[in-house]
Please model this.
Amino acid sequence: MTDLHWFWLARGAGDVHKITGFGCDATGRPSTVRRMGLSSSGDLSLEREFEGLSSVVQYGPHPFSLPKPVRKQQMGHVILEMPLLPGTSIWEQLRALPRFERATVGWHLVRRLIQILEASELGDARPFDADQNILNLRMLVQKATETESQRATVHRALADVEQDLRDVWRQLGTHRPAHGDFWFGNVLKDRNAFAVLDWEYYGYYPTPFFDHLTLITSSSVVLSPKGDGTLSRAVDWTTISRALDDNEIPSLSRLLGRPQKTLHALLLGTALTLAARERDRQTDGNQLLWSELLTSIVMHLDQTKHN
Amino acid sequence: MLRHDGRCACGVVYSVSEDVFDFLGNSDYYWGEMPRTEMEQFLSEAQRTGWRHAARVLVYPKRPDLQQYFEDPRRTAWVAEIPLPAHPVVADLGAGWGTIGFQLAASGAQVWLVEAVRERVELLRLRRAQDNLTDAKIVRASFMDAPLASGAFDLVVLNGVLEWAGIADKSITPVEAQLRLLRNAAAALRVGGFVYVGIENRYGWPQLRGEIDHSGLPFTSLLPRRIATLVLRFSRNALSSHTGGDSPRQTTYRTYTYTLAGYSRLFRHAGLRIRRALMLAPTYNLPKLIAPLDHTPTIARAMRAGLIVRGSRLARALASMPSSLLAAVARTLAPSFGFVLERME
Model:
């Protein structure tokens, strides 16, 4: 370890409070990765990541690789050190492709990753507590919304789908923890092998298929013909919600054997959770993104109801 | 290290008011990120509603660039490259708004913030109280004559300070002033302690593109210093209008920056050895890419990673250059450097 030469990157919207170091050997080949907190908020997020990753590593086997972290300290800050897994983030690979090819390859990968998610068990199953989950979602509305009128609209939309949510919870009976931030940027691909990074949001979420829906929604943004290839910019939600409904929701509906109406309800729960979380993190771009997503889903549900 | 009886071990008398050690008394020199009147308004609002709120209301709408400068935790990202003990004793010379000093204090360091400008010291005092970092000590003194006890510090921070030494002490040449500052910092180090210097590259990429130099004008760092002085003589008071300060018209170019080799020579003359030389990009004030300049394959890898993140076609083309060329580009054109220095024994 002592022979490694380190360089550090701190660029992503979520990386304001922490930096990522790459330990390179004498030939410049990176073999070890370090994530270091720069503030109490960064330290907390690394603590969460360490706990999440440690739990999920122990729970295996998994259909994807996981780095085994070691926790250290430097001058009061948390450092997680782990071997660098082979591969490049899917998002980096896709960005190198021309736009049309990016969308084709990207949606193909979404389906592969959903199959992997279906084959994954990330922790012990717990029974759904329907009343508690509804309460949790209602509490998130306050955090996820900006204005009183938006709040009222989302509450109304949530009330409309409550029965669908209760039905799916009753049918499934139990749920397992999710990765919590499952998008292309956090998945490495090396030929046909995948590795999943960034486990700071690992945990139990009120809605099932949380990772599936996060992946589909985030992909619809980054693969959108009008998107600029980042998650942090405002995008044309009408196009995206249409894309979701024309292609991805029906395909997920077939794969999971659930009606599209149920998936819309789950999508609302997922968007609500993500919007609340991003507003809490106060990262500029993503905050806007999920808040817009929430609004567009609510509008879409409203239209579907009236049709 | 400083007692409350008003006499430093160095013999200088100081006053203690509201837990600030004041070595400058009635001196009323102003230098800052904004004009004095705006700073005073800001302080009064900060006193009433808190410094963060005041900055959001009064400062950031006019100067959005200052938000990261004052609040971004990445300002101390270079700390990852310094092997410090768990609770180091740190001196932050020329602390400004205290972002670096208070970030280090929040992570467990015992920090002494040294700042000369009265208004900034007042802000440091408010910030210390409002952020509940009451262990941090504030000293009102010039960074050139900071009353640092010998062998007392694990780290002395000179972030964006060394280049100003020639302005802060005009009785000697800029190089002599820089050497004096570095020697004072070196003398304050404990055995195994470090001086950290964050500073621009004289011929850095931003300077070549016309970024404003410390003189207040673009391109002056690139010129031979005598020519830069001539340019200053024929310009208006560029330095002062750029920084919102009270400084008199600058007629001599005294804000010296250097190349990598130039810094190495300067540090050696000051009795300091480079333990780590780092490229900091885009600036030393907000480093988002930190890479070691002494290892060609690693700096090349870091450059590639940094360029790929940018995503543009040009960046990708640059990333495909051979490693030795990429490393040479980094060493020559790095926007700024971070130096971790240790005393030569």
About this structure: The interface with chain A takes residues 72-74, 76-77, 79-81, 84-88, 103-104, 106-109, 287-292, 295-302, 305-306, 308-309, 311, 316, 323 of chain B (CB under 8 Å).
